[in-house]
Amino acid sequence: AQSVTQLDSQVPVFEEAPVELRCNYSSSVSVYLFWYVQYPNQGLQLLLKYLSGSTLVKGINGFEAEFNKSQTSFHLRKPSVHISDTAEYFCAVSKINKFYFGSGTKLNVKP
Amino acid sequence: DTAVSQTPKYLVTQMGNDKSIKCEQNLGHDTMYWYKQDSKKFLKIMFSYNNKELIINETVPNRFSPKSPDKAHLNLHINSLELGDSAVYFCASSQVSGAGTDTQYFGPGTRLTVL
């Protein structure tokens, strides 16, 4: 079975500071990796995804993530956050069209 | 011109009642999903339909019955509601099914509260 672990349930950060949201997954086979963002009272929307190729993936809103196969991690980063980045972030893996989501990390950007 | 819409947005009901949640997508996608997000924010897939055909049916009580009248709609009917059914239910859609590479587009969610 797949599992996705997001180690931090909440990450407070000041505006313009860098941030990293951590995601680890367990799988004995190749999977596809995703980060989704959920703004308050909205559905999830895709930030970025890793399918193959370069391990550094760039997404929308200045976010990027790095796939590390040896550490089974897919951490999300942004060099300078904005107030509008305040949201819940979900890491997910998929295998044969089944998606497994982490429990989410709430990013709270303070002025 | 919402891509994936759900109704209602909020649903408050008594234990034992039967209720339905509707979902529609106007993206022309072939595959639709229902997810349940519990109070700890865990998001778990319940069902998936591809072109009106059920392809994923996770371990969900048979009080939950999805229905897809056409590939743009996927409704969720819940019989004999229980307290533990309280959650946010998300509908999603994606273009194709089977590879697991497609982006899923989510609706805004339906917050179900069972009293």
Summarize the entry for a quick read.
Chain A is mainly β. Chain A has strands at residues 3-5, 10-14, 19-21, 24-26, 32-38, 44-50, 56-58, 64-68, 73-78, 87-95, 98-101, 105-110. In chain B, the strands form 2 sheets. In chain B, strands 2, 4, 5, 6, 9, 10 and 11 form a 7-stranded mixed β-sheet that branches. Chain B has a 4-stranded antiparallel β-sheet with strand order 1-3-8-7, with no helix packed on it.
Low-confidence stretches of chain B: none
Helix/strand structural class of chain A: mainly beta
Question: Would you list the SSEs of chain B in sequence order as H and E?
Answer: EEEEEEEEEEE
Briefly note the CATH topology name of chain B: Immunoglobulin-like
Q: Poorly predicted ranges of chain A (pLDDT <50, ≥5 residues)? A: none
Q: Multimeric state of these chains?
A: heterodimer
Shape of chain A: globular
Terminal CA distance of chain B? 34 Å
Q: How confident overall, as mean pLDDT of chain B? A: 91
Task: State Rg of chain A.
Answer: 13 Å
Strand content range of chain A: over 45%
N-to-C series of helices and strands of chain A: EEEEEEEEEEEE
The main pleated sheet of chain A reads as: 6 strands, mixed
Strand tally of chain B is 11
CATH topology of chain A, what is it called?
Immunoglobulin-like
Task: Please report the two chains with the greatest interface, counting residues with C-beta closer than 8 angstroms to the partner's C-beta.
Answer: A-B, 23 and 26 residues
Q: What's the CATH superfamily of chain B, by name?
A: Immunoglobulins
Task: Give an overview of the whole structure.
The complex is a heterodimer of chains A (about 110) and B (about 120). Chain A is mainly β. Chain A has strands at about 5, 10-15, 20, 25, 30-40, 45-50, 55-60, 65-70, 75-80, 85-95, 100, 105-110. Chain A has one domain (about 5-110): Immunoglobulin-like (Sandwich). Chain A contains no helices and twelve strands. In chain A, the strands form three sheets. In chain A, strands 2, 5, 6, 10, 11 and 12 form a six-stranded mixed beta sheet that branches. Chain A is globular and about 40 Å long. The mean pLDDT of chain A is about 90. By secondary structure, chain B is mainly β. Chain B is built from no helices and eleven strands. Chain B has strands at about 5, 10-15, 20-25, 30-35, 45-50, 55, 65-70, 75-80, 85-95, 105, 110-115. In chain B, the strands form two sheets. In chain B, strands 2, 4, 5, 6, 9, 10 and 11 form a seven-stranded mixed beta sheet that branches. Chain B has a four-stranded antiparallel beta sheet with strand order 1-3-8-7, with no helix packed on it. The mean pLDDT of chain B is about 90.
